Amino acid sequence: MPSAHAAKLTERSRQKRAAEAERAELQQKLATLKRDITQTEHARSHAADELGHSEKAISEANRALHELAAEQRETEARLNRLNEEQTRLANMVSAQQTRLAKLIREQYVAGNEDRVKLLLSGDNPNRINRELQYMGYVSQAQARLIESLRANLQAIEANRSDAQNARDELEEIAQEQREQKTALEQQKARHASLLAKLSNKLAAQRKEAGSVARDEQRLAGLLDRLGKLIEEQRKADAAAQEKRRQEQLARARAKSRDDMVSKESSSKEKSKPSRTNPDSIDNDEPPSKTSIRNELVPVAGVQDSGFVRTFNTLRGQLRLPVKGDLVARYGSKRGDGPSWKGLFIRAEEGSEVRAVAAGRVVFAEWLRGFGNLVIIDHGSEYMTIYGNNQAVLKRAGDMVKTGDTIASAGNSGGNEQSGLYFEMRHQGRAFDPMDWVITR
């Protein structure tokens, strides 16, 4: 079993590396975007930046625990299915063994020379033939039963191996959970110590009127760059799709030409002996566009949104992303600073934050002023923004459905209250989310 366990560990590690490799390019682009935004600002010490590292680490530890819990549920469900299958197979094998024992016992009682005795008995040949056929059927049934029993025994062994692998995997997950919980507690302690140390500095920076404006400018710059990145990806996907379509079209044309040449050659061969049927030779015409089109294998198209419903049809049907008290609305004044560009919903720390609609996560990082931030692209240049989270539970590139849990509410980014900052934007411009949500 140790070798099987080691192989399973290696497989899990391989799968994780493959998943991380898929995100590596996108993460690199996002890191470049953040670096460009930071470099355009004047260098200034900010308390939130010092807290940012611990807030990001807390978010990552919580996300790892969330992912491990989901993996644990899936593995436990798989183990339950394997145990049920093991019970079913064991019952089947027991029944087959009973039947086989009965057949062997009956054969032993009847003796092994039945066929010879029948042939030498001088009895009616028709009766002998019937008896021999009956014995043949019994032998075939016995052979099939033995083969089925052998296959089920092998299935039991394979099932037992899979079940052990699942148990090993659960133990591995449990160990990772223990390590992540330890890391989370350490990060929380570090964050609390830093927060106490920087509280006066952070309070003073919150009151600075220009700070909020710079935060909003930073977010606007990020969204603008993300929009360009999404558009570049959309064009690249469209170009790749067109290339695949042209390649398929070329293959279809080549196949049609080959088929036509083969058919013409065959027709000529058939007409050579008689030379009396010139009409039998096919007309040398190119295949119609319709016939070529019918040869094509459909390719999944790159749509603008890529989601089930276009986002702009959801106006008035969305639900707020978190349960809590709406303490700041779009357009209301924010002290001495600029007006709110979104909503602030006060909620208990750790409350589930859900995606308001289906889309793709395009940003899941810490950003000054907004803490642990999630941005979802819904297509057609619509985006939703979820800030000040305690933990981000999705990664850039993940697809989400309406109502999926994407984060947990908190007060990261230097916010005084626990809750969620929520924005909706179209073509980079913020608009009032309350016009889009169910208010009753």
How would you describe what is shown here?
The model is unreliable at 1-7 and 273-306 (pLDDT under 50). The chain is built from six helices and ten strands; from the N terminus they run ααααααββββββββββ. It is an alpha+beta fold and 440 residues long. The protein is extended, with a radius of gyration of 35 Å. Helix 1 runs parallel beside helix 4 (125-207), helix 1 (2-39) crosses helix 5 (209-271) and helix 5 packs across helix 6 (289-295). The chain has helices spanning 2-39, 47-110, 114-120, 125-207, 209-271, 289-295; strands spanning 325-328, 343-346, 352-354, 359-367, 371-379, 382-392, 399-400, 405-409, 419-426, 429-431. Strands 1, 2, 3, 4, 5, 6, 7, 8, 9 and 10 form a ten-stranded antiparallel sheet that branches. It folds into three domains: 48-206, Helix Hairpins (Orthogonal Bundle), CATH 1.10.287; 241-295; 309-435, Glucose Permease (Domain IIA) (Distorted Sandwich), CATH 2.70.70.
Question: What are its keywords?
Answer:
440 residues, Helix Hairpins, Glucose Permease (Domain IIA), 6 helices, 13% strand
